[in-house]
Sequence to fold (887 residues):
Amino acid sequence: MTEREVKKGIKELSPIDVYMLLPRTNCKECGEANCMAFATKVVNRELPIESCPPLLEKKHKRAYGKLQEMLAPAVKEIVIGAGNHEVKVGGKLVMYRHEFTYHNPTPIAIEVTDEMPERELLDKVKRVEGFSYNYIGREVNLDMIAIRSTSNDPTAFKSTVEKVAKTCELPLILCSFTPNVMEAGLVAIKDRKPLIYAATKDNWRDMAELALMYDCPLAIFAPNNLKLLRSLAKTMIEYGVENIVLDPGTFADEGFSDTINNFTMVRRNACHKGDTLLSFPIIGTPITAWIGEEASEDMLAWKEAYIASMLMSRYADILIMHSLDGWVQLPTVIWRFNIYTDPRKPVAVEPGLRIFGEPDENSPLLLTTNYALTYFTVESDIKSAKLNCYLLVVDTEGISVESAVAGRYLTAQKTADTIKESEIDQKVKHRHLIIPGMAARLSGEIEDLTGWRVLVGPRDSSGIPKFMSEKWPPKED
Amino acid sequence: MKMEEKEEKKKASIKFSPDLIELLSRFQEIELEDVDIEVGDLEIWLRPTASLTAPPKVAVPPLLKVKPTAILEEAFLPPIEEYVGSVLEVKLGATRGEGGSRGKNVVIGGATSPAFCMFEKPPPNQPVVTLDVFDMAVSLPKAIRMHVKEVMEDTAAWAKLAVDKFGAEMVTVHLVSTDPLIKDTSPKDASKTIEEVLQAVDVPLIVGGCGDPKKDVTVFKKVSEVAQGERVVLSSLTLDMAEAGILGEVAKAARDDGHLALAFTALDLNQAKELNRRLYEFLPKDRILMDLTTAALGYGLEYSFTIHERARVAALMGDQELQHPVLSGTTNSWAAREAWMKMGPEWEPRELRGPIWETVTALVLLLAGVDLFMMMHPAAVRTMKEVVRRLMSTGKARPDKIADWVTVKI
Fold:
């Protein structure tokens, strides 16, 4: 699989570059066999440079500094929140996912306002915190709350921020363009280190002061104006604000093309042009879809959903969204999960026999392919149903069931070979093999070739528990 | 704003806070900052005179900065990059004047920049949607079936519905019934279906096989003959056909009858290049499209996304074997259980969850550079077209529209 190639680090960084700056004592304190092995892992971002204890000694200070600079990501990593409830954003090393794994999955912040009735407010916050979906055995969640001051009233904002902070521990974004409103919010939760949203061309001085005073990261907002965005970034940096998040504006309707352009130009400037003023995380606001004219809420939510996924694909490091509907957030969080996986990870799992629970000689035998996502889906369904069974994983060269049957990667012959190699005939007494519904057409051939009786299972492995309760144990002929 | 006023304002704004005492430590910091500013000013002031005498021995703390009092103006230059390669333009369908019978043809490809980098070079051709129809009633998710159930037994009527009602710019006819394990429809009967569709609609066609390489080759050869001159796309030609030694005959038929080939490989650029090299022996380069495999959102879409980005970057960097327009079988998104399965109430309605699944799968691939999308759900198709239209027109952003989004009541 071409995806398996090990990529070079950013900017053609080679292990030698790192090695030359290491103490080169081969002390093995890092756990690696020698300094060269360590350097390779550092370049591949599998180990931080700080895992080398001698390097941290005073006499290597200069080399350490140089290495830090050399390994610095193209996009600065910013921390929002404090203690156990912080979230890291940005920290991107590359523009394209095939160059290197994307770091720090885009946190999704769901908005509330300071004009929501208390019950509605707390209910939404709790639903954000409780949002959870089990995706191939992993839990996916929402990450932050963005509190907007729609009242523009400091007292109302402060009270809302306090309530939210008391109810949940998620990192927060405070949204207001009015400095004294922002300050009222910051006073209420000064230890939570929220993201201040946002400094603009009009309020930048006050917002910069607040960011310094409360030691919080600061977003700068310059809708469709990258010249202003750079100017504000420069101004903030000179002001002493170090942790900056960039908002070039999200236009959901007319101007969406400019939005995609702006996000792309900002990230390309950071990754390819070494533009230090744009080397910060980008915040996208799919919530602006709700300013649109569509009459129905479903259509607005629909637009917000696809814009979220598109902006994540085009470099958004944080998102603020309005809709909490499951059908809106499910594609968003799954796509986020997906693009932040390691692209070097193979798409295939090891073929062979897997054992779930404590199967005995009467337990069922199922079959699937070695495409990673097929396998993990089946695995997760078997585990959540707490089945005691055997699963035969056929080597289909990492192709899913339907395509593998069509493309002859899953055949009766391969099934027969896998059965033989697994020696499953010595583990079970019966001779019944449950195959995926999508492979139904292979039934006859498999029976002829193996002598095993084939039961055609469900087309989707979510149907396995139902299938087992209805069809297992099989009736004797 | 003067510094004193600024300070006044800050103190005033803090005064309303009941947590004033807790903020006292902050005030000390503010005062230190004021000192910093003075030292900063002083430093600048002293510099010319200092150079006349001995350098001052006073150690100035390195962190001192003059806080800007106005926005520091910076320029912005769009990060334009140069590409030595470009994607070939491919023409699908042939009009009467061109030897076919289509009302008009569709041109795709031609990209000279990564997808929708409009600041660099806008794509010469827009991405296009082709709607899927089948030559027999197949099992479809409820959300799709409800739109097509009246025509599922009549392929030509199904194609007509796709064009007339759902605005399909192209139609893909999947000859699934030719599968030896389904109905084993003969090449002759299958090509008759294609003839009927060619009469019912005048958009360019893609003809899909059943996935059995041997059967597909015999069917494609017959279809190629009856559709001579129509510039249909044969979907798809594969390395399996090459291995079975039957790729040449179908590629030659396509060449002689004036059709195009869709080269299908499974998420592997080396294989994609190899298959293209095999096809170059028979077909002109501008008659080849690639299908690099589309996996559904949640079921490998990230592999599809990344391989499309890689292929496009490689094509622009000059890899000639990858400079073909790419097609995505976006309908595969319905293989994801989240697209069709009944789930808990918090994930409903699936009438929206299904089509948004197809929509998201399509739109992220649009950003990865896909030129042609096989799709099914009318809402997903409409969204796709609307987004393409929006992406093609730059300079429409009006900052005032979102300038105050923070206070907008939803």
